[in-house]
Amino acid sequence: MSNVKHAPSCDAILVVSPEHHRTFKNAGWPKARLYEELYRLCEIPGADLAARAEDIAEGGPPALTGRTVNKFRPGGIMIVRAGGDAGMFSGIIGGWSAGGPRGSLPVTKEVRN
Questions:
Q1: Are 104 and 9 in contact (CB under 8 A)?
Q2: Which residues neighbour 45 within 8 Å (Cβ) at sequence distance 6 or greater?
Q3: Is the omega angle on the peptide bond into residue 8 within 30 degrees of 0, that is, cis?
Q4: Which pTM value belongs to this model?
Q5: What DSSP string describes the chain?
Q6: Count of alpha carbons within 13 Å of 106, Cβ hemisphere only?
Q7: Do the beta carbons of residue 29 and residue 93 sit within 8 Å?
Q8: Is 32 exposed, middle or buried (0-12, 13-18, 19+ CB in 10 A)?
Q9: Confidence label for 102 from pLDDT (cuts 50, 70 and 90)
C-alpha cells in the first residue's frame, strides 16, 4: 500500500472472498460493520505522520501531533465480494495516493456469466 505518510489521501479496494463473506455473515456483520471496523483499525497517531517523524523527511505539519488521522479518506475504502471457492483468500487492491474529487475516483462494474 501507499506510504503511511500519505494519509488520509489513500484509497484501496478490499476484495472479500466468498468464504470470508460467509464468515462475516455468520457473525452477523453487515457490510457497514466491516467498514466501521476497518476505519477504526486504520487510525494513526498524527505524530507518526508529521515530517521528520521516525527520521523520514516527508510528512505533514507538526500540528498533526496530538491528533488521530485515518489512513484512508472518508469513502476511500471500497469493499467488493469476488472470487471462487478456492479457500479463504481475500485481497487488497492498492489504490492511488491522490484519491477523491481532487485525484481520481474508482469505478466498478458488475460482471455476470
A1: no
A2: 68, 69
A3: yes
A4: 0.76
A5: ---GGGTTSEEEEEEE-HHHHHHHHHTT--HHHHHHHHHHHTEEEGGGTBTTGGG-S--B-GGGTT-EEESEEEEEEEEEE---SS-S--EEEE--SSBSTTSB---------
A6: 19
A7: no
A8: exposed
A9: low
